[in-house]
Design brief:
The structure holds two protein chains of two kinds. By secondary structure, chain A is mainly beta. Chain A has no helices and eleven strands. Chain B is built from no helices and eleven strands. In chain B, strands 2, 4, 5, 6, 9, 10 and 11 form a seven-stranded mixed beta sheet that branches. In chain B, strands 1-3-8-7 form a four-stranded antiparallel beta sheet, with no helix packed on it. Classes of the chains: A mainly beta, B mainly beta.
Chain lengths: 117, 107
């Protein structure tokens, strides 16, 4: 059974880089697209971007902070870097698998990141 | 970007009621429409994919329909665990976009 686990610092200072890792267990990372989604407290879901096992990426152009998503297939990990963060980047960050159905069929539990000095 | 508009943003209902949530896309997305349920403090959970296909393990009281720009999620008989928040999402193109959510509350 495929499981996803996000990890990373819970607190990031303004103007610094937010870096998160999503570790995939129980299945292949190569076959699918893997997404990052975030959710500010009490608000809706915002898609950040995605990457496949070959490193092909798509990003949400509406994000104000520059985004980079990368993957290490040997470690079965994907990475999110969000640079020059502001308080508006405070949110729960989720990784999720784009299933064969093109829906987000498996999600991590999420990790809370606060941007504050 | 494709805008997804859900309505209502919240609704009040009782156990056993039939409820319908609508989702409208700003352009045609064929049947590339998914529905998620989110319980407080938890990650979203896929209920319906491709507009009308029930995800494995999801109770049959959940039903999705629609194509093009207009979609609905119907819960035929609300159970106590269904009083949570629901989101639609288009997977027609990137950036993927979500509706703003519909919170189902107990009347």
């Amino acid at each position: 059974q495929v499981q996803l686990q996000e990890s990373g610092p819970g607190l990031v200072k303004p103007s610094e880089t937010l870096s998160l890792t999503c570790t995939v267990s129980g299945g292949s990372i190569s076959t699918y697209y893997w997404n990052w989604i975030r959710q500010p407290a009490g608000e809706g879901l915002q898609w950040i971007g995605r990457i496949n096992g070959g490193g092909s990426t798509n990003y949400n152009p509406s994000l104000k902070s520059p985004v980079t998503i990368s993957v290490d297939t040997s470690k079965k990990q994907l990475f999110l870097n969000l640079s020059s963060v502001t308080a508006a980047d405070t949110a729960i960050y989720y990784c999720a698998r784009d299933g064969l159905s093109r829906a987000l069929d498996i999600w991590g539990q999420g990790t809370m990141v606060t941007v504050s000095s | 970007d494709i805008q997804m508009t859900q309505s209502p943003s919240s609704l009040s209902a009782s156990v056993g009621d039939r409820v319908t949530i609508t989702c409208r896309a700003s352009q045609s997305i064929s049947t590339y429409l998914n529905w998620y349920q989110q319980k407080p403090g938890k990650a979203p959970n896929l209920l319906i994919f491709a507009a009308s296909s029930l995800q494995i393990g999801v109770p049959s009281r959940f039903r999705g329909s629609g194509s093009g720009t207009d979609f609905t999620l119907t819960i035929s008989s609300l159970q106590p665990e269904d009083f949570v928040t629901y989101y639609c999402q288009q997977s027609y193109t990137t950036p993927r976009t979500f509706g703003q959510g519909t919170k189902v509350e107990i009347k």
